[in-house]
Write a structure and sequence with these properties.
609 residues, alpha/beta, Rossmann fold, Immunoglobulin-like, 13 helices, 34 strands, 22% helix
Amino acid sequence: MRRVVSASAPLTMLSRFTVRGRLPAEASLSLALGLPLRNRAQLDELLRQLYDPRSSNYHRYLSSAQFTERFGPSVENYRAVIEFAATNNLRVTALHSNRLVLDVAGWAADVEGAFGVTLRTYRHPTEGRDFYSADAAATTPAHIVLDTIAGLSDYWRPRPLFHPSTAAVPLAGTGPSGFYVGNDFRNAYAPGCALNGAGQTVGVLEFSDYFKVDITNYETKIGMIGRVPLTNIVVTTNIPARIYNGEVALDIELAIAMAPGLSRVCVYESGGSDPTSLLSRMAGDNLAKQLSCSWGWESGSNATVDSALQEMAAQGQSFFQASGDLDAFTGLQSLDDTNQQYGPIDSPYLTAVGGVSLAMSGAGVSWASERVWNDHAIGGREANQGSGGGVSAVYQIPDWQTNVDMSANGGSPLWRCVPDVAMPADGIYVYYNNGAGSPLAGTSCSAPLWAGFTALVNQQSVAYTGATVGFLNPGLYAIAASSNYPACFHDVTAGNNIGTNTPGLYNAAAGYDLCTGLGTPRGTNLINALAPAPLPPPQISVLGSAESGAITLQLSGAPSHTYVLQSAADLSTALWQGVATNTLDSSASWQFTGAVTNASQFFRLKFAQ
């Protein structure tokens, strides 16, 4: 008996194409074998507790080793997969510390024998090349348990989400021709903020290499005196070329622009086409607490991708994904249509970032206004280039998103809606191509800006609590449901992401919408809401004498928080009884007068909520 594996192959489309041949038996293939996590119900509950401020486990994250011990694939299962690979002449090219992925390589003939498939070649319908694909779902012996197999097809190749900027609106940045660079973003979204990301590391996911001189040129242009160290981590044996170096340079430069004091940027690179190995390594290393991805791959859910993202959330890492650049996901371009290439935008374990067009006052002086990034709508040349957003067809709405009213924005009360937040996606100047510079656009710009902004949040959070803020969505949507929302977000209410392929959807709306999510950050207000200062310790002062049989106490603590006054006659018994409860007013105090019933009476003040 053999077990069917959810393989990465376009099986639903193969009947449309004419077989051109058979992949040569000696063709070399690289595969990533994704293994399932254990104790998933316990993991779901832990994630709920980690992001519930009322839980004793709030922000008490796991280390990579702890996550692997509790939830990672078992040692026995991992060893069995290694032995299965060796039995089928597949060479192990990389082990992962979290045991989530096993990277292997081998000849096509051996791959066919191992997984019970035939690898055939077809003509690609849009890219002017032949592609190969398994002609059926892969299977393994019953004792080999896998979630996914990546590498049985090259129909999809990861694509970067950046484009040349064709913006025709007046720009007020400090870069060439008014394009936005460097401190323009801090002045717009963190004005007057002293935080610079010190002590924090940003990680970026890339399928290309880059030219380091472009990064130093950018740092010089924006007036940085020092340099942010760069660490390249090549995950697969396929060495990445520099064909998409513009995407990599953009990701690094915009993270640095928002957080110029970063300790380093880790560039996770692959010359292959599999995201699961990259994501597994980013989670297993646990080096960067804010991670960004501006690439897309095949649509639909991927169990190994979600497992890696869950591990990140359990370890206090934040992952930001560009929401796509083809306007709304609907009609001819459904978000989870497996014929499309929009993964992993709607995974419930990441923060999807849409795009806005920014207007500033003065030359990069301050935020002035925003509208949804939609190139054609603002006078650009592209008819279907704008902030991606829509409703998932495979992921149910997460608990943290159920507090959003979807009745007026085209969203769904039952299914995951994206994006979650937004940042600028147009009129942005980037240095790339080994010394050149050019304005670029796309939600590729938006995701690393949020990663840089979160480095500011985490710098403060670690200073106050010793912990990072981790997966942001539960906190962001809690703020959105509170009276603090207008102070923490620029609510984008102008524009739409309607294109010729998506008639009528979607329009910006008050509050959450499927163009820019909750909006863009309002600097220190949002930082303080996500990483608040510790509450001052409550104090009790005696104001009135107890000789008359009564005592007056002055009670103080944090404004707007509730405290309970308790009393006990004997400290040794610790039998504390509640005496009074009150919420402190703006003066952060209240007075209490009560009877003294014992020769000795002790009082204490406890934080209630």
